[in-house]
Design brief:
3 helices, five-stranded antiparallel beta sheet, alpha+beta, single chain
Length: 157
């Protein structure tokens, strides 16, 4: 329903969930801090100047957007986003958290696989006005955030 991916589309998130085949230059195995049978969570390779360590949560099954994903899986992703938000408050000492999700080209969806963003927020961080200043982050810095979150979830689940 409401699909925008072509038959030739190569899903960049698929490498994260298919047999550990990380052929993506953007996401490394070290970026993943949580994975179970249904969902995976990792530090996004796309970072913003004042919001390092933002997270993406995806279903392990390929659903293009919110219109296709089953309600029980959608609920699991959102329940986990709450846990990520609490972890960010504790580990990142952020002032708040923003959660966002995009659908279709007009909704700014860029990857045709349902995904939910969780951003640490800080007073005056200008997250939305600095969108065009986002950048591909260094894998070493991402691994530091992923290690913190992985340790948190290993000790709090």
């Amino acid at each position: 329903m409401y699909s925008h991916k072509s038959a030739e589309y190569k899903n960049p998130f698929q490498a994260i969930i298919d047999n550990g085949n990380f052929d993506s230059i953007h996401t490394n195995k070290e970026d993943i801090f949580y994975q179970d049978n249904d969902i995976s969570a990792f530090i996004s390779s796309k970072q913003w100047p004042n919001n390092p360590g933002n997270v993406i949560i995806i279903p392990n099954t390929d659903y293009e957007n919110i219109y296709d994903i089953p309600d029980n899986l959608l609920a699991k992703i959102h329940i986990f986003s709450k846990k990520v938000a609490i972890a960010m408050k504790e580990l990142y000492k952020c002032d708040g958290v923003s959660i966002r999700q995009h659908n279709e080209p007009a909704g700014n969806q860029e990857v045709w696989h349902y995904h939910l963003h969780v951003f640490p927020r800080y007073e005056g961080d200008d997250l939305y006005s600095l969108h065009k200043q986002s950048f591909s982050s260094d894998p070493v810095s991402r691994a530091e955030f992923a290690t913190k979150l992985k340790d948190y979830f290993n000790n709090n689940n």
